[in-house]
Amino acid sequence: MIKPGMMTCLLVALCAAVPVQAEQRAGTFKVVNGTVHVERAGVKEVAQIGGAVMQGDRVVTAPDSFAGITLRDNTRLTASPDSTLVIDAFSFDTTTHKGRLNASLKKGRLAVISGQLAKANPESVTYNTGTMTIGVRGTEFILEAAGE
After folding, report:
1. Residue 19: CB partners within 8 Å, gap ≥ 6?
2. What's the whole-model pTM score?
3. pLDDT of residue 131
4. Could you tell me whether strands 43-46 and 66-71 are parallel, antiparallel, or unpaired per DSSP bridges?
5. Going by DSSP bridges, is the β-strand pair 66-71/99-113 parallel, antiparallel, or unpaired?
6. Domain spans of the chain?
């Protein structure tokens, strides 16, 4: 039988672990040129090199600006000037290489170099442009979306 004190410790440990996983970094800004914002949980911030990219983030590049993002599975995304990209879902297990990546290009252009997720599990990676959803079978491609 579990003692009441032990149960309390177990519950505290479980509750403490949940926010860490929920806020796990999907990737990192490797290049920020010009004015690039990241919108997270209703808050708009200026993107910075080395800054976090999280699941649910909306990355917005101004005209004459662009952003380079490397996700944890080594997927490389380059959002061109005047683009809006949303990381809808991202998870990646570094041991099994399982997980998923779902991203939406709301407007602009996005250059993609696929990482370990697409190579190990191509059906787990999709990109949405609003008019179509693309499943990844290649390693490098460019998406374009007219607008929101």
Report:
1. none
2. 0.82
3. 85
4. unpaired
5. unpaired
6. 25-145
Say how many residues make up the chain.
148
Tokens of 11: 């519950």
Give me the phi and psi of 24, to 5 degrees please.
Answer: -65, 135
Cα–Cα distance, 115 to 120 (Å, whole number): 9
143 strand-pairing partners: 110
The string of pLDDT tens digits covering residues 10-30 is 444 444 444 444 458 999 999
- Residue 139's alpha-carbon distances to 24, 32, 90, 117, in angstroms, are 25, 23, 18, 11
Sequence-distant (≥ 6) Cβ neighbours of residue 107 within 8 angstroms: 82, 83, 84, 145, 146, 147, 148
pLDDT value of residue 139: 82
Question: Which stretches of the chain drop beneath a pLDDT of 50?
Answer: 9-22
What's the confidence (pLDDT) of residue 2? 54
Q: Give the pairing type, strands 99-113 and 125-128.
A: parallel
Residue 138: what pLDDT? 66
Contacts of residue 38, defined as CB under 8 A and 6 or more positions apart, other chains included, come to 29, 44, 45, 46, 47, 51, 53, 57, 58, 59, 60
Q: Which of 68, 70, 71 is nearest to 99 (CA)?
A: 71
